[in-house]
Amino acid sequence: TRISLLDFPMPIYDGDLENRSGAPEAAISLKRMMQNHQGLFIASPEYNASITPLLKNTLDWISRVREGKEPPLAAYRNRVFALGAASNGAHGGMRSLLALRQVLEIGCGALVIPEQVAVFRAAEAFDDMDELKDERAAAHLRVVVRAHLDMARHFA
User: Fold this and answer.
1) Is the separation of the CB atoms in 75 and 59 below 8 Å?
2) Cβ count within 10 A of residue 39
3) Is the pLDDT of residue 156 over 80?
4) 24 and 12 in contact (C-beta within 8 Å)?
5) What is the pLDDT confidence band of residue 155, given thresholds at 50, 70 and 90?
């Protein structure tokens, strides 16, 4: 399932808003969608050496959704995450991957595989079909995806 967070609009996370109104439907929908998959690959650009505000807000809202007798952070448990980033800079989003890994592993208790992919000079890196032009980068992406799939099979 391929999604864009732009299709799941949510207000900025605020505990007082959550207490008054509960989680937005978009957060509930995404949390349920996450729970239907054993593996999730998060691809994101880098903003000022960190993750985008949209991604952070989404992860925060999803972390708050609890349905029935679910334990906290249910959407992040018993599934495997892989990470990818892209940036027009020379680091390819590598700095944002460190921040994203911290949020997922430490903040949400998620299992994130060590393999990750960072695409530098992102504006020039993809062809018209959204495929990586550079064979080394494409090969590295395949390694990450293979490791992700292998690990996710353990949770199936």
Assistant:
1) no
2) 19
3) no
4) no
5) confident
Distance CA 116, CA 95 (A): 12
Evaluate whether 121 touches 154 at the Cβ level (below 8 Å): no
Q: What pLDDT score was predicted for residue 90?
A: 85
Integer-rounded Cα Rg, in Å, for the chain is 16
Name residues whose C-beta falls within 8 Å of residue 51's C-beta, 6 or more positions apart in sequence: 44, 96, 99, 100, 103
Residue 98, amino acid:
L
| SS3 state at 4 | coil
Rounded Cα–Cα distance for residues 11 and 26 (Å) = 10
CA dihedral 39, 110, 77, 138 (to 10 degrees): 0
Q: What is the DSSP letter of 141?
A: H
User: What distance in Å separates the CA atoms of residue 141 and residue 121, rounded to the nearest whole number?
Assistant: 16
104 exposure class (CB count in 10 Å sphere: 0-12, 13-18, 19+) = buried
